[in-house]
Amino acid sequence: MPEWLWAPVTAAVLTATVGVTGAWVGLPWLFPSLGPTVFLQVHTPQLASARPWNVVAGHFAGIAGAAAGVLLTGAGSAPSVLSDDILTWPRVWASVIAMALTIAIQVPLKASHPPAAATALLIALGGFRLAPRDMMILLLGVLLIAALGEAARRFRVRP
User: Fold this and answer.
1) Nearest residue to 42 (alpha-carbon basis) of 115, 120, 121
2) pLDDT tens digit string along 13-37?
3) Is there a contact between 34 and 114 (Cβ–Cβ < 8 Å)?
4) What residue spans define the domains of the chain?
């Protein structure tokens, strides 16, 4: 199948699989930063940033960096930018810390994955809380897309 057709069809299948599975179990496993992850996995599968280590460790770095930012600034008690349409100083500074730490964690781990920066901002801006349920949703969504995307990636880059 030609790339111009394979990538969009595969992206649709991966997105639908995560979305339908999440809807079926009643958890929002499909969230915005998985879109760029899927894009990398199906459109540029040969890049290191599309590999499972980069996907999983990269998003975990984003989660860790954002958690530190939210905790250090007290942003967890600030309104969510995404639902309340208010950008407060704690959310700004949590975002600054989240972005810096996401990259600082990814580099030594050799786990560069740009979409993880969006995961960090989703948390820092209040789209996801540091509550165990929200963190589980993020982790399971990332693990699911990493596994599905790796199957697609391997199919596309096979010799």
Assistant:
1) 115
2) 999 999 999 999 999 999 999 999 9
3) no
4) 3-39+50-157
pTM here is: 0.94
Overall average pLDDT of the 100-115 stretch = 98
CA distance 142 to 147: 9
Which single residue is written with the structure tokens 């992850």? 37
**Tokens linked to 128:** 């996801």
Res. 156 pLDDT band, cuts 50 70 90:
confident
The alpha carbon of 49 is separated from its chain's Cα centroid by a whole number of angstroms, namely 12
* CB 20 within 8 Å of CB 47: no
CB environment 55-92: b (16+ within 10 A), e (fewer): bbbbbbbbbbbbbbbbeebebbebbbbeeeeeebebbb
User: Who's near 45: CB < 8 A, 6+ residues apart?
Assistant: 152, 153, 156, 157
For residue 28, give Cα distances in angstroms to 59, 142, 149.
16, 12, 18
- The whole-number pLDDT of residue 159 equals 58
**Side chain identity at residue 125, one-letter code:** L
Mean pLDDT along residues 107-133: 98
